[in-house]
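Can't paste images in this forum, so I'm doing it all in text. The chain is below; anyone willing to post the predicted structure tokens underneath?
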Amino acid sequence: MPEQGAASRLGYEQARDQLAELVKRLEAGGLTLEQSLELWERGEQLATICEEWLEGARARLAAATKPPDDDSDRDGDPTRPF
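Text version of the structure:
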């Protein structure tokens, strides 16, 4: 599915904005059942993309804020001060 490949390259903000617009369309009503289902499925894809971006950001934040190991700078030698 080419659309899915293109969708997975969306940035977080793009996916979020598309998802918000899609929700507005669903809430406005006036769609056929088939149209509603297609929008719902697309919304699920967009939500997954957003979640993947958020998980990546959480992992990067956790790595950046993780305190260094006590022995990491001393190569395991307790007699070396630095």
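Residues 33-65 form the longest helix (33 residues). The helical segments are 2-8, 12-28, 33-65.
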